[in-house]
Structures are given as structure tokens and as C-alpha cells.
Amino acid sequence: SQTIHQWPATLVQPVGSPLSLECTVEGTSNPNLYWYRQAAGRGLQLLFYSVGIGQISSEVPQNLSASRPQDRQFILSSKKLLLSDSGFYLCAWSKGLTYQADTQYFGPGTRLTVL
Amino acid sequence: TQLLEQSPQFLSIQEGENLTVYCNSSSVFSSLQWYRQEPGEGPVLLVTVVTGGEVKKLKRLTFQFGDARKDSSLHITAAQPGDTGLYLCAGGLGRGGADGLTFGKGTHLIIQP
């Protein structure tokens, strides 16, 4: 069976510090990978998605970047955090075929607080 | 931009009652997902519906996709405290993940013993 992991679970960082959140998937190959941010009262917002190693698409221009160095590893980064980067960050995966890609499975999330 | 409106936003009922949550859009989706999320955790997939008019049942939960694939409903029979959580609907466009999923803001459901 497939599992998805995220770490850290919680993170408190000062403004201007760097960020690295990691997501890994087990039990599948060539998944689509996604980063979402969930803010209170605003639903989930897609930040980045990837259909393969080194292939990253950004949905919202912002202070964040993403990388996919391995097939089942997805990293969310920032060089300098802003207060507005605080939120609950969720990684998700789906199968790669077009008709299957809408069914997405989420990780446990990372709660980021920027002070 | 596709939007999904969920109603009600908040619902608090007694154990044993029935309830229905709605998810509406002016856009057509290729699929509709329902998730349940508990505080501090990621959303857990409950069901995916892909055919207009499709009905799926998961124990006491019944999910329906509208005929025009623009709306969906979740009906819970004889609600239990374990049903408490945030229920999210999400629409997919079937573009191989290129657009991710469009999420509603969710329905906060509390089932009181």
C-alpha cells in the first residue's frame, strides 16, 4: 500500500530565515506530487505540482519554491520567510495517468508559524 | 477560475440525526472528491465520483454527483460523534493533475453525544 510522509510536523521560524519542508511517498512510482497551503477560512490553495523528476509547475507566484530531486521526493523551500508564509502545508500524490490524477492522497501536513 | 461553494459552513447536531452537506459550482468537473479532515491532520479521501448522477455509499454516508457534474451532496444517516470533522469537497478537471484540485472551504460538522 502507498504511504506519504511529511516532516517536520510543526515548525516555528523567524522572519527572514530559510525553509525546507520534505515530502516522500512510498509504495508507488512516477506519482504526480503537489504542495498545497491551507489557511483558516480559505480552503486549500495549490502552490506547486510536479509530474516528474525536475519538473515543477508553480500555480501562485510567491516567496516559495519547490524541487523534486527524486521520483518520490518533493521539497518546498524558501530563502527568506515572510509572516504571510505561516500556515498548514500539505503534500499530496496522485497516480500519473490523466484520468486518475484527480484522486489525490494527502500527507499529515506541516504546521509552519513564522514569527 | 472554478469555485466550489459548500453549505452549510458550520453544523452542530445531536447524535442519531440525519444531515446533508452540499457542494455547488457553476463549473463542470470531471470528478468530485469528498475528504474528511481532523484538526492538525491531512484530509482523508472518502470517495471519488466521476459520472453524472452517480451515487456511492460508504456505510452511513451517501455521496451523489449531480447530473450536470456541477454539484454534489453528502448525506449522513444516524450521525455519530466519530463523524465530527471538517468535510471538504474538491473538483477535478481531469487534466492529469495540471490544475490540482479546486477545494471548497469546507463544512465544520460537530456531532454532539
Provide keyphrases for this structure.
A: 115 residues; Immunoglobulin-like; seven-stranded mixed sheet; four-stranded antiparallel sheet; 0% helix; globular; B: 113 residues; mainly beta; six-stranded mixed sheet; five-stranded antiparallel sheet; 11 strands
Would you mind describing this structure in some detail?
The complex is a heterodimer of chains A (115) and B (113). Chain A contains no helices and eleven strands. Chain A has 115 residues and is an all-beta fold. Chain A has one domain (3-105): Sandwich (Immunoglobulin-like). In chain A, the strands form two sheets. In chain A, strands 2, 4, 5, 6, 9, 10 and 11 form a seven-stranded mixed sheet that branches. Chain A has a four-stranded antiparallel sheet with strand order 1-3-8-7, with no helix packed on it. In chain A, a hairpin with a 2-residue loop joins strand 7 (65-70) and strand 8 (73-78). Chain A is globular, with a radius of gyration of 13 Å. Chain A starts with a strand and ends with a strand. Chain B has a single domain, classed as Sandwich (Immunoglobulin-like). In chain B, the strands form two sheets. In chain B, strands 2, 4, 5, 9, 10 and 11 form a six-stranded mixed sheet that branches. In chain B, strands 1-3-8-7-6 form a five-stranded antiparallel sheet, with no helix packed on it. In chain B, a hairpin with a 5-residue loop joins strand 7 (61-65) and strand 8. Chain B starts with a strand and ends with a strand. Classes of the chains: A mainly beta (115), B mainly beta (113).
